[in-house]
Amino acid sequence: MKNFLISVTLIATSSAALQLFMPWWIIAVVAFLVAYFLKQNALAAFGSGFLGVFLLWMLCAFLLSAANDNLLASKVAMLLPLKGSVKALLLVTGLVGGLVSGFAAITGSLAIKLND
Amino acid sequence: MKYFKLLLSLAVTVALVYLLNTKMGVAPAFGKFLNPFTGFWQNAENTKVWKDEEANLEGLKEEVKVYFDERLVPHVFAKNDEDLYYMQGYITAKYRLWQMEIQTANAAGRISEIVGEKALETDRMQRRIGMGYGAEAAQEYISKDPASKKLIDAYCNGVNAYINTLAPKNYPIEYKLLDYKPEDWTPIKVALLLKNMANMLSVFEYDIENSNFIAKYGNEEFRKLYPDFIKDEDPIVPIGTKFEAGTPKPEAKTTSYIGHRTSDLYSTVIQKPDEITGSNNWAVSGSKTKSGKPILCNDPHLRLSLPSIWYEMHLVSPNMNVYGATLPGSPAVVIGFNDSISWGVTNGGRDVRDWYKIKFKDSSRSEYEYNGQWLRSEKRIEKYMVRGKGEVDDTVIYTKFGPVVFDENFGTTDSKKNLSMRWTAHLPSNEFKTFYQLNSGKNYDDYINALKNYTCPAQNFVFASRSGDIAIKEQGLFPIRSKAAEQGKFLSDGSTDKDEWKEFIPNEANPTCKNPARGFVSSANQHPTDSTYPYYYPGVGVYENYRNRRINQLLTDGKDIDADFMKKMQSDNFNVHASEAAPVLLALLDKSTLTKEEQRMADAIGKWDYYNNANQIAPVYFEIWWNELRKLLWDEMLDKSVPMKQPNFYVTVAFLKSDSSSMFYDNLSTNEKESRHDIVLQAFQRIKDTLDAKQFTEVSEPYGEDETTEQKELNPHDWGTYKATKVSHLAMLEPFSSTHVYNGGNLGIINATNTTNGPSWRMIVDEGAMKAFIVYPGGQSGNPGSKFYDNGVKPWSNGEYFEANFVAKGEELGAKKLFLSTFKPK
User: Fold this and answer.
1) What DSSP letter does each residue of B556-594 carry, written as one string?
2) Mean pLDDT in runs of 10 for chain A (116 residues)?
3) Residue ranges covered by each domain of chain A
4) FRET label pair with B321: which of A70, B208, B603, B758, CA 20 to 30 Å apart?
5) Could you state, in order of their start, the residue ranges of all structural domains in chain B?
């Protein structure tokens, strides 16, 4: 559990820091490395990878959009199409990041097992 | 097993990243687009906090201060003109970059680079009419004028200075959706934007359509349906004005018009709007105003689009203090006012494009016949870098008569039907100089001087000065045409010099009207002159016949005119066309067979006051009736393979009224032989079906005029709902558009708002009060995530205005200041 929480925090903070100057897919590298060095089973690795970026992306998106009165998000949520639901758009945003990070974390946790 | 799992997991991860990083069809690259660090969430700008800012910019000479007011209008205070235009470029790019680029890409025929093959044919059309060729000619010419070159370069430097500050996360949202990036801004793009405007406003020629009509239905019918002048003409230069004899000298030497003699039909034409959309402008002299000083008004009608076609700016340097509408991507104010004068434009609509049939020697098309000799053609290879496909090449052949637009490679398979297009926009010109000189102009002489540089598209420039002058001039470069030959009305012969443009009408002879006795000048795309004007120009279907008469009536009757009078006038919904057509149609309608509901509709039209207000029902019935009637009456002209121009509304009404029998009354798709009574009835009977078939969407924001009238309760499908005006995003993205705008108006009405077009900018300049009132259907920001994206749409729809903050110093904005940007040289 401790490793899980550390892992979530590490993935979220490192992803946030690196994305300031790296492309979005750096989150996959981060999740891979964290899962590689913090030993967890595959499921826990996925969970921490997913949660770390899912929460990070949703929180950042939420804060940006709140300052914008959701003006843009509600239009993009019509475009995608999500019937204009900003909540659904936030969820999709979190899912996209979470899934990539989650699968990268599984990969990391499986890679470390090669050493066993 | 370990390895298998690892590889599988790795494969899934890599595949996910790849898919989410790639644009698929119309869907964006979701990882790129949705991540909050570089994706679209970054475009969700803060709507509450506005902070002063400072920056150092490469290329700036001295400090420039830009105050933004409560509508995000920039007030630019520079210490020299170069810095002023540099800053205009920088600020415009900051708020309108994507729009500037997409409009130039469209002008240059480069949309397929962004969206792929589906735009290739549109791109080819742009290049085949010589948009790039014309822009290059203009740019080369402009660069010979050091003053113009310096200022245009400064503007481009400003745009590029802004682009250089951008990281991908700051790109406007459309770049993220379409997954591409901005490129450098160059003087050729400025020229392209001006050519784009020229292209939009040069479509009023019907050479091929007219030739087709004569070939099919003969000269006699043509004379009746397409007269140069109509009875109720109220031209820009008032009837009776004496023109100087002029010099209609080398009247183009002959009449060898193949349009009269050929039985060939042509299927290729440039698409034209169904009926004339146009613009209004007028100025009244102090003798008619409350203040004793002139008032000038202008509302150019264009396709309603977001981001708005105009960007509102206030530009101040030691040399000028000018305010008005700028064209994003191009320096200077296009429509506006300064501390001494004001001006505005409507489209002149004069025919500035002629089509020539070219005869090539052989299939290599390297030589074409001209006066019994073979001249070498020039070949211009147009390269298209089509996204997802690679390079596609197209060869366009240039002759003395311009580019061969339509040939066996484009539009037709007939190798004999080579049509080239001569267009004044291909001639070298410097329209920028006109606007620059107007921006710093002080009086009538400056105005006339400024116009000299202006070639295409022909515009009616209205003018007023604080010192009391009013004037209007139709400005453009026009070939001298032979009246006897009706030169320019039909397809011309490109194998001789007989139909060639030889000389141009002297600039001083362009129709001008200064301080007329009636106390006002006006234009609304009508004839510039009566038939006594010494130079011939084709008038077939080119000119509008309604708004001008209403404007002139209101201004003739008006006394003690003030800005409020003008505000009402720009929103005036009186339908002159309906007031003339409805009585004719009702008289021809056999009411004996009508159902009860149809009877009620006919009564509604009979009692109608001819105002197309949003809450009225009668205009809906009339509009459907009229449109259906035109389809039945002119069904002979609906065949797209033989394009012809439908006679205009005025001629159609006169025809129905006076011609009791005609071959055109017969409906070709039936066995019976219809009379005008038959088709009037049939069209009327279609009203109900059309209404039943139309999908009405609820008006999302039922703003606009009074909605609680009796009529509104009778039928929710009133004029405002039926017309459903829409301000569309440039990429036609529905959520980025303003839909279901509820208002009145229509084509042919001063408030010329129909479903897709309308007044793109309304301006009233009161030279006495030194005040200006402005509104336009959009907002200052091009970002759909800004609260300044479409905040003007509602007030525009309601006929409300904002007073321009025409301050002498930024500090005077006081509480109206949103924030201040200070820029210093690096």
Assistant:
1) HH--SB-HHHHHHHHT--B-HHHHHHHHHHHHH--GGG-
2) 85 91 92 87 89 95 96 94 92 95 90 77
3) 2-113
4) B758
5) 1-34, 576-714
What contacts B532, CB < 8 A, 6 or more positions away? Answer: B243
Per the DSSP assignment, residues forming a β-bridge with B380 are B396
CB B667 within 8 A of CB B679: yes
Length of chain A: 116
Say yes or no for a CB contact (<8 Å) between A24 and B32: yes
User: Tens digit of pLDDT for each residue in B435-473?
Assistant: 999 999 999 999 999 999 999 889 999 999 999 999 999
| Block residue for tokens 């049509």 | B419
Least CB-CB distance to A25: which of B21, B41, B786? B21
Residue B273 has pLDDT above 80, yes or no: no
Where are any strands of DSSP class E within B268-328?
Answer: 279-284, 295-303, 305-306, 311-317, 320-326
B368-419 pLDDT, tens digit per residue, is 999 999 999 999 999 999 999 999 999 999 999 999 999 998 988 888 889 9
Q: Which positions in chain A touch B30 (Cβ < 8 Å)?
A: 96
Both tokens of B637, joined, read 């002209």
Complete DSSP assignment for B316-352: EETTEEEEEEE-TTS-S-SEEEESSEEEEEEE-----
Sign of CA dihedral B793, B794, B796, B797: positive
How far does chain A reach from its first CA to its final CA, in angstroms?
Answer: 21
SS3 A90: helix
Residue contacts between A and B (CB atoms, under 8 Å): 122
Sequence-distant (≥ 6) Cβ neighbours of residue B347 within 8 angstroms: B201, B204, B278, B279, B300, B457, B458, B459, B460, B525
Residue A61 and residue B632: Cα distance in Å, rounded?
A: 56
Tokens for A3? 């490793």
Per residue in B800-810, pLDDT (tens digit) is 999 999 999 99
The amino acid at residue B441 is G
User: Which residue is listed with tokens 């009860």?
Assistant: B596
Given B9, B35, B38, which is nearest A106 (Cβ)? B9
With 0-12 / 13-18 / 19 or more C-beta atoms within 10 angstroms meaning exposed / middle / buried, residue B44 is buried
- Tell me the residue type at B753: T
Report pLDDT for B259. 56
Exposed/middle/buried for B146, CB within 10 Å: 0-12, 13-18, 19+?
Answer: exposed
Nearest to B42 among A23, A64, A71 (CB): A64
Strand partners for B397: B379
Per the CB < 8 Å rule, is B34 touching A96?
yes
Residue B149 has, within 13 A of its CA and on its CB side, a CA count of: 9
Residue A78 at interface with chain B, using a CB cutoff of 8 Å: yes
How large is the ipTM?
A: 0.96
pLDDT at B714: 44
The domain defined by B576-714 carries CATH number 2.60.40: no
Interface test with B, best of A46, A100, A112 (most B CBs within 10 A): A100
C-alpha distance from B2 to closest chain A C-alpha (Å): 7
Phi and psi torsions of A63, nearest 5°: -65, -45
Q: Are B115 and B387 in contact (CB under 8 A)?
A: yes
Among candidates B325, B354, B263, which has minimal Cα distance to B73? B325
Q: Which residues of B263-285 are buried (b: 16+ CB within 10 A; e: fewer)?
A: eebbbbbbeeeebbbbbbbbbbb
pLDDT in tens, B107-117: 999 999 999 99
How close, in Å, is residue B328 to chain A by CA atoms?
Answer: 23
> Nearest CA to CA, how far is B586 from chain A (Å)?
46
Helices marked H in A20-84: 26-37, 42-67, 71-79
